[in-house]
Amino acid sequence: MKRPADCKTMADIRAEIDRVDRELVRLLAERTGYIDRAAEIKGPLQMPARIASRVEEVVANVRREAVAQGLPPDLIEKLWRRLIDWSIAREEGVLGPEWEDHP
């Protein structure tokens, strides 16, 4: 692993970007495991996949982290809302979409 400042060539940069991308995919797979487990837990409790208050809590959390990391919070929010929508759709695949949104 090289820090950005330690990269001397485009090959170095590309190798590090590829490494980071692999790690991001691994982290997304890990996150998906938690999404799948949430669906298993929510089913017997008759909880919906989408809980609006939790969606907004997650978005607020990632916006704060974006600012702390020097990233544009609006862009990060947009990315996360897509990720959240995909996660909810995955949960609904298990739960079914019949449950109404909870505040």
From TrEMBL:
Positions in coiled-coil regions: none
Keywords: Isomerase, Lyase
Alphabetized Pfam families for the sequence: CM_2
UniProt-listed InterPro entries: Chorismate_II_sf, Chorismate_mutase-related, CM_dom_sf, CM_II_prokaryot, Isochorismate_pyruvate-lyase
GO molecular function terms listed in the Swiss-Prot or TrEMBL record: carbon-oxygen lyase activity; chorismate mutase activity
EC number: 5.4.99.5
Keyword Lyase appears in the UniProt entry: yes
Chain sites annotated for binding substrate: 14, 31, 42, 91
GO process terms (BP): chorismate metabolic process; salicylic acid biosynthetic process
Stretches assigned to the Chorismate mutase domain: 4-95
PANTHER family on file: CHORISMATE MUTASE (PTHR38041)
Protein name: chorismate mutase
Species whose genome carries this gene: Rubellimicrobium thermophilum DSM 16684
